[in-house]
Design brief:
By secondary structure, this protein is of the alpha+beta class. The protein is built from nine helices and five strands. It folds into two domains: about 1-90, no CATH class; about 125-264, Reverse transcriptase/Diguanylate cyclase domain (Alpha-Beta Plaits). A five-stranded mixed sheet has the order 2-3-1-4-5, with helices on both faces.
Length: about 260
């Protein structure tokens, strides 16, 4: 735009009165210098304003000339194009920002759909997605809070919710960053442990969790409150997947007296 509209505008100004242009007074020289500086700097609006000012000065010094109207018209058209382009860029920027905001909102909504709101762990949707994407071996840790109904009945549901949150925190602290942690439902938690050494790693997580729950200061939450967990560890075996294996192991731990680990 500068090369065509403003370049032509400056050429037209010189053609209006070449002799008087070179002999113009100091204001004309200042306007010319301002125009050239704005043109070199890419300041289109300043260039257009300087062009109109030089046209007005030429009229004041030498009277009206047919080319002056054309020159001012070119400057006004250039200004309109500049503002239209800037308005278009601003609108496009707004649209991009709105799209980014919508994408971020969708991501947050999608993330929320995969999270348990009470504990912040994943839910069954996340579990299903993780298992579907995993192509290698993995083991499963199934955790159940022992006698949780009695906790709710004796100490209120508010205390029961805090017990679930703290068990989730202990599970999170004892697992590796790459493990997938899920609140499976109610007072049940599940962890997916991946990799070739998954069975041994899962057993280690289960032992650390069992000890951490036993040693947690539950009495600070409610007088005489004691919490234990039963844990089942399962790995894929013929005819049974890891989740089902861990489920069987969990119920075996419960039948054996709770507050223990059973591995299959």
């Amino acid at each position: 735009m500068r090369a065509s509209a403003f370049g032509f505008a400056m050429s037209s100004l010189r053609l209006i009165s070449r002799t008087s242009y070179w002999r113009c007074r100091r204001p004309c020289r200042h306007l010319t210098a301002a125009w050239e500086a704005a043109y070199r700097a890419g300041r289109d609006i300043w260039s257009a304003v300087a062009t109109q000012a030089m046209a007005d000065l030429d009229v004041a010094e030498h009277g009206r000339h047919p080319a002056v109207g054309l020159l001012k018209s070119l400057a006004r058209q250039a200004l309109r194009r500049v503002w239209a382009e800037r308005d278009g860029r601003f609108t496009a920027l707004q649209t991009r920002n709105q799209l980014r905001a919508l994408t971020a909102t969708a991501d947050r909504m999608g993330e929320a759909a995969l999270r348990d709101p009470l504990t912040g762990l994943g839910n069954r949707h996340l579990l299903a997605r993780a298992i579907e994407k995993e192509t290698g071996e993995f083991s499963v840790i199934f955790v159940d809070v022992d006698h949780f109904k009695q906790v709710n009945d004796t100490y209120t549901h508010a205390v029961g919710d805090e017990v679930l949150r703290r068990v989730a925190d202990l599970l999170r602290a004892d697992c590796r960053s790459e493990d997938v942690l899920v609140r499976y439902g109610g007072d049940e938690f599940l962890a997916l442990v991946f990799g070739a050494g998954a069975p041994a790693a899962a057993r280690g997580v289960a032992e650390r969790l069992l000890d951490a729950v036993r040693g947690a200061p539950w009495a600070h939450l409610a007088p005489d409150l004691a919490v234990t967990v039963s844990v089942g560890v399962g790995s894929p075996i013929p005819g049974r997947d890891a989740v089902a294996g861990a489920d069987v192991a969990l119920y075996a731990a419960k039948r054996a007296g709770r507050d223990r680990i059973v591995s299959l």
